[in-house]
Amino acid sequence: MKDLLIQGVRMVDADQELVGDILIRGGIIRAVGERIPAPRGVPVLPGKGKTALPAFLDLHAHFRDPGFPEKEDLLTGARAAVHGGFTVVSLMPNTEPVCDSPEIARYISAKAREIGLVEVYPVGAITVGLQGKELSPLEDLAPFVWAFSDDGKGVEDHELMWQACRKAATLGRVLFPHCQFSGMSDQALAQELMVARDLWLARRAGCRLHLAHLSTPGAVKLVTLAKAERVPVTCEVTPHHLCLEGDYPVNPPLVARETRVALLEALKVGVIDAIATDHAPHTPEDKAAGAPGISGIELCFPVLYTELVRPGALSLAELSRYLSLAPAQILGLRKGRLRAGYDGDLVVFCEEEFTVSEDFFCSKSRNTPLLGKRLWGEVWATIHRGEVAYLAGAIKGRDFHDHRQVIPSG
Predict the structure, then answer these.
(1) Cα separation, 297 vs 278, whole angstroms
(2) Which of 57, 87, 283, 409 has its CA 20 to 30 A from that of 381?
(3) Which residues are catalytic?
(4) 154-179, pLDDT tens digit by residue?
(5) Per-residue pLDDT tens digits for 266-286
(6) In the chain, what are the domains?
(7) How buried is residue 313: exposed, middle or buried, by Cβ count under 10 Å (0-12/13-18/19+)?
């Protein structure tokens, strides 16, 4: 079923706020307004007292499949995504084997379609095996990926990165670098030097650039200057770099309060385009050994809602822009707005407080500093192209087979 009527719900997206109904037919939003009649046979989801947003799109996540099923796989990653309100996920290439061949990209896409919970857009590796020595067969990869990245490390060879920029421009694909030179004691400078280099190369080559997890004011300033000169660049920031502090190991490291304030301001003025989770699940053993990363896709919205929206630092409409509309525009998808003609992808949440426990997670991983923390804004339902993928603790395919079992028909 790809038809659904959501009734009496508060609706917020990047451009509007109202209370009413949303009719989805054939996976597409067909009408938004007050008192939409329920077509015969269309299931009805009562939304009174809840808020609907366009579903979220994650430009940067790791589902560890193939190669690391003990950390995550495409099924558990997809379940975690819909639990967090996401219906689109871009997956990074640091799997085993690395996503540096059409075969691996096709495997990821085909398995995600078979699971059927979220849309998955693979990212191909810039270099063979992420080794930074030889370009991957980018021409062969291009039909199956939307971008190229060696996420987890930067491409340090200048000539190799120049070749990658030129190839990406020719192929019409985005270059998605992890900007950080290795071997430097000053992590901020390591990021800023590579951001500057990659912006310059992209400008010369004419390729689109999307910068991963910016975390320094210097990098923000460089992007500001590049955008002023119309370099085709977008960039992202993570929830943990906006909201968390301390020494919990992530890459790049967590930042001080004044840097978080600067990152938030860059987001609000449009220098930083989107928020992406960098969902990085690990086993307890790997985390204890110092593996960097946060299992963040399920807590992305609640932590941002709690730390930024409720205190008034960010409006809910602004948050919808950064989690939904801007990522959809970067990917070239007709998602991210609650209006007729857009895909019927929605997330519905409750204005209620909850405590983060180990039982909360659908991911295999619970590596987060937020265990035991009280947050607001728990996702109640996630709808992908008119189909209920998650509802009140139940996940399609695991806890129910068809949303008609849990939603009264109109």
Answers:
(1) 8
(2) 283
(3) 278
(4) 999 999 999 999 999 999 999 999 99
(5) 999 999 999 999 999 999 999
(6) 4-53+342-356+374-405 (2.30.40.10), 55-331 (3.20.20.140)
(7) middle
